[in-house]
Amino acid sequence: MLKYIIRRVIVSIFVLFVMSVMIYTIFAFAPGDPVGSQMDPNMTDAMMAKLRAQYGLDQPVYKRYFYWLWAALHGDMGYSIQFSKPTVEVIKTYMWNSFTLAVPAIIISNLISIPLGVISAVKHNTYIDKAIGLITLAGISCPSFFIALLVIKKLAMDFGLFPFSGMVTPGGGYAGVDYFFDVLRHASLPLIVMVTTGIAGMVLFVRSFMLNVLSQDYVRTARAKGLPQRTVIYKHAFRNTLIPIVTMFSGILGGLFGGSIIIESMFAWPGMGTIALGAVTFRDYPLIMATNMFFATLMLLGYLISDIVYGIVDPRVKLD
To answer: pTM of the predicted model, to two decimals?
Structure first.
């Protein structure tokens, strides 16, 4: 197990290096730069050239990359031009706001989608299965921004049940339990959108694998032995369905933040998605690199955890 983990960590570091080269190169050759994006009409060409030299933008791309890489290896991910502070501090400030949204969304969506997928497979070709299929099809067909606009119109503007922007009430000055419920009210609409969009895919995934497992010989044998339906479903079939479900979780850590860019932006939620989008708009290269490396590290960490858990769930898998 230890050898396997060490081997996977080495591979992950190499993948992270390749991703850093790709991301840096793509944004370095993209039109515009942080100085040009400031759009100050009073700025002369000489002033812009001086700023570019100050930021190191007058250097060749490969030099800028190796300067960035050397600093990153020493824990310095750069200085955010947009926030005027180190990018590590910016990420530390905003990552917890994204966790506040994403973790409950993942827990709730999986608590709903996995049982629905199992029920849909067990009740195959019944009205229950068709009803669940219709709902999941609608969920997959609707993009997240459409669902966001829909809940803003109905739940926020028409009925006034929830605020539709921000994380807290401006000037509210809440503390303790009042602050918790204020954040909960503001998080309700983004959570509804994230849960709705997260359920559909997982239901279809669980249903597909559960149907495959239910058709296996060992399940038919268990039924032929007269075992109760509950034992056949949850002890024999569902445990084997857990294996592909575990692999689905591999991308959750990365998707936890990356997938929420649109939703956080639409609800003005101050999270990693919002600052990542702002960094691209502002051409804030240090922050772009820091946020993308953060997402990539989470993704690779998710795959590593997934591989380890895979071996625990499926005894046939030998990690060594």
So the answer is: 0.78
> Which stretches of the chain score pLDDT less than 50?
none
Rounded to 10 deg, the angle between the 177-214 and 127-141 helix axes is 120
SS3 218: helix
Name the burial class of residue 138, with classes exposed (0-12), middle (13-18) and buried (19+) by CB atoms within 10 angstroms of its CB: exposed
- Provide the pLDDT for residue 316: 64
Where b means 16+ CB within 10 Å and e means fewer, 82-93 reads: bbeebbbebbee
Q: Which burial class, exposed, middle or buried, applies to 171 when counting CB atoms under 10 A from its CB (0-12, 13-18, 19+)?
A: exposed
Q: What is the pLDDT of residues 133-166, one digit of tens each?
A: 888 888 888 888 888 888 998 888 888 888 888 8
* Contact (Cβ atoms closer than 8 angstroms) between residue 260 and residue 101: yes
* HSE-CB of 287 using CA atoms within 13 angstroms: 27
Chain mean pLDDT for the chain: 82
What residues are paired with 121 via a beta bridge? Answer: none
Calpha distance 5→9 (Å, rounded): 6
Measured at the alpha carbon of residue 74, what is the angle toward residues 73 and 77, in degrees to the nearest 5? 75
Where does residue 292 rank: exposed (0-12), middle (13-18), buried (19+ CB within 10 A)?
A: buried
